[in-house]
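hey so u asked for the seq, here:
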Amino acid sequence: MIEAVIFDVDGTAVDSVDLHAKAWQVAFEKFEKKVSFEAIRRPKKMNGMSIKKSPDRGSHRSRHFVRRVEQSKPHPDIFEAALSKLGGIALHKIVTVGDTPYDAEAATNANMRIIGLLTGGWTEERLRQAGCIEVYRHLADLLAHYEHSVFQSTPESK
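ran it, structure tokens below
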């Protein structure tokens, strides 16, 4: 039985991928650089800065969590930091949910199972190649198939 779920928020729980891409496209245009929306929306590799380099904002608890993350995905640091906050729940009782191959690779690198969502613009095939054990169109689709998902199965069956 699943006891904990770790969600990637940006693009997974909150559909923000297109908004980010459009913002970047507008920023590039300000510097007279023409970059297609699709080229921005689906980068070839993860280009984000490590979360460790983010400004030191938020509550004491969130600052402490940020300091535990050394590298960005596909390195497993973000999932390992979340795992350390779950109080010793066994890995087979945890599932992660993400929308990119980087999420899947990071979860897999942390020996965690991951469900993929197509909200990040990646194909089901690519998400499965990266390690997703199940793939759904979006969170509502996962909820609609909840009874047949990893949430209702034993680790050995998935």
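The chain has one domain: 4-157. Residues 44-67 have pLDDT under 50 and may be disordered.
lmk if thats what u needed
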